[in-house]
Amino acid sequence: MGNKVLDRFAVILLLGLCVIWGLQQVAIKFALEGISPMMQAGLRSIGATILLCLWMRWRGVKIFERDGTAWWGLLASLLFSGEFLLLYWALEYTTTSRGVVFLYTSPFIVALGVHFFVPGERLRLLQVIGLCCAFGGIVVAFGDNGGAGDTLVGDMMALLAAVFWGATTVVIKASPQRMLPAERVLLYQLAGSAVALPLLSLAFGEAGVTSLTMPVIASMLFQIVMVAFVSYLAWFWLIHRYQASKISSFGFFSPLFGVFFGFLIMDEAITPIFIVALVLVAAGIYLVNKPQAVKQTLVDKSSLPES
């Protein structure tokens, strides 16, 4: 369990998940036409929390249990809320292509965090090279906006969202939460953000839901059902059956698909310089997640995908 070599079905499913995560930023952009950023992120979490609770009841996984992880779960949910607050906000000020590239610098935050906070996990030479590639990609991306206007505020928000995402993963890896069923780890994050984000939306005086057109409704359903529920459960199914390290190495496809869909659907300009930045970040993700020579036999339940 958790140590099978990737077969054709697993590879196809992984690529499908990367497509879903690459489309997420496009869906957020569409929904911003009728729902303000924080309220949109909150509604996403509310819907996904309901679906996850129904799933857990059906599977017999305990929703509430005193296991000493509540405070760690609260911390993870606050970081998760901050990540999506920043990501949804960022996409009001930057393009989907730029947003996805900066967001997917998160694996490098994780690599640095576990080096200092998780015993036995130290940076390897390939990971250091990957970090250098990613840093170079960020510098190149900041230096080129492809004629998209002033994207600095949105770019910085997306980068900070990546920091929050990475910090969430490090907290889970370094705390007792790593021993929980994957559904409960996810529930802490979704339920916490389902409460926090709508309240923040009201506190900031957002307009909230202003227009429920078909594109807006379809975008929200995609985010709730396909991204925050189906794709996460599929991810957990994969990491319980296949080598987690080999699965993680597919992460570099998500920003590639994200940039492609930004170009294809949103008609965003992609310059040669930005392609260089994308390649550097994608290469860095691959190197940071590249499996070690020693075969892994344990499943890391804290390895949550980005949504």
UniProtKB/TrEMBL annotation:
Residues 9-141, 153-289 form the EamA domain. The chain crosses the membrane at residues 41-58, 70-89, 101-118, 125-144, 156-174, 186-204, 216-238, 250-266, 272-288. It comes from the Bacteria. GO terms for cellular component: membrane. It is a multi-pass membrane protein. InterPro entries: AA-Vitamin_Transporters, EamA_dom, EmrE-like. Keywords: Membrane, Transmembrane, Transmembrane helix. Its main location: membrane. It is found in: Membrane. Belongs to the EamA transporter family. This is DMT family transporter. It comes from Pontibacterium sinense.
